[in-house]
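Form P-L/3: holo structure prediction, ligand manganese (II) ion.
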Amino acid sequence: MVIVMRSGATEEEISAVKQIIESHELATLMMPGSVMAIGIPSSIPTDLRDPLQQQLEILPGVSKVTQVSRSFKLASREFHPESTRFSVGEADFGGEQLVIMAGPCSIESYDQLRETAAIVRAKGANVLRGGAFKPRTSPYAFQGLADEGLRIMKQVGREVGIATISEVMSPDMVGLLVENVDILQIGARSMQNFPLLIEAGKSRHPVMLKRGPSATIDEFLLAAEYLLANGNERVILCERGVHPLDRTYTRNTLDLSAVPVLKEVSHLPVIVDPSHGVGVAKWVPAMACAAIAAGADGLMVEVHPDPRSALSDAAQTLTPEAFGAMIERVGTFAHVSGRSLPCAAEAG
Ligand code: PEP
Ligand code: MN
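OUTPUT (holo model):
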C-alpha cells in the first residue's frame, strides 16, 4: 500500500498517517519526492487491507491511497498508471518518438568522440553515449579516460547539441557525473550497488539503470525502486542481455520478453541495448528492430568511426554506415508500431 500526501501536507498530518500504520504493527517507508509518499513494504493481512485503506483515505493531508500487490511499489503501474514521460534535451523518454542513444563504448579522445557525435546525430541519434569510467573484467584492460573523458563528453555534447550519457560506478562519483553529463548510466554490474542507487536517487538527475546479467525482473525493478524511493522520478530501464546458456555465438542473451513485461508492470521508459545484448556487430540491427517491434521506447547502440581500432567492445561496435542502415531498418518497425524516429532520422 502506498499513501500519497497532498503537496504541503504538514509534519503532524504525516505523523498521524505513520502512527495509524504502526498501530497495526506494520513498518512504514518514507519516500520523499515532489510530494511525500508513505509506503508499507511488507504484505498486509487480507482482512486489514480495505479497512486500513478507508481509515487512511479520510485523514487530513492524504491525497490518495493505493494497494500495490507487487514487491516494488513506486515503480509499479498499479501505483502510477500513466507511463512516465520526460525530456532530456531533444530526447523524449516514454513519448511516441523513439530515443536513439549511440556512441562509442569508451571515450578515447576529443577527435574520436567529436567525429562520432557528428555522425550519429546526423543519422538520427538524440543522445550521445560514451564511457569515461569503464567497468572492465580485467584490471589490465583500458579503464577509460576518467575525468578527462567527462570533460571531453561535456564539450562535445555542447558543440554538437546533443544530450549525453555516461556511466557512474560509485556513490562518490555521482556529483562529478551530474556536473558533466545529462543522464547517469548505472551499469549492469552495478545494478545492485545500493549505496550508488541511493546517491543517484538523491541527485534527482535522470538515470538509466541497466539490468544485471543475472537479475530477475523483480530484482531489476526493486533496484529502480531505490532510485524512485530516494526522490528521483526520471528513471529509465535498460535491458542489455542476461547470462547466456550458450556463448558460442552471442555474448549474452538479449531478453526481449522483458520489454512487454516491463511495459505492463511498470510505468518507466524501457530502452534496449542490443550491442551488449548480442556482442556481435552484424547481429545488432536485427535485435534493434525486434526490440522496437516488442515495444521498447528506444535503443542504445555502440558506434565508432573505425570499430577495428576501438579500445573496448570492438566486436559489437557498428561502423557509421552500419548504424545508418540500422536506423533505416528500425524506422520500418517503428512506423508499424505507431512510433516515429527522431526528426533527423525521419528527414534522412
Ligand atoms: C556499457 O554500456 O558500455 C556497459 C559497460 O554496459 P553494461 O553495463 O550493460 O555491460
Ligand atoms: Mn561497451
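COMMENT: Residues 105, 131, 135, 187-189, 210, 240, 276 surround phosphoenolpyruvate (ligand 1) (CB under 6 Å).
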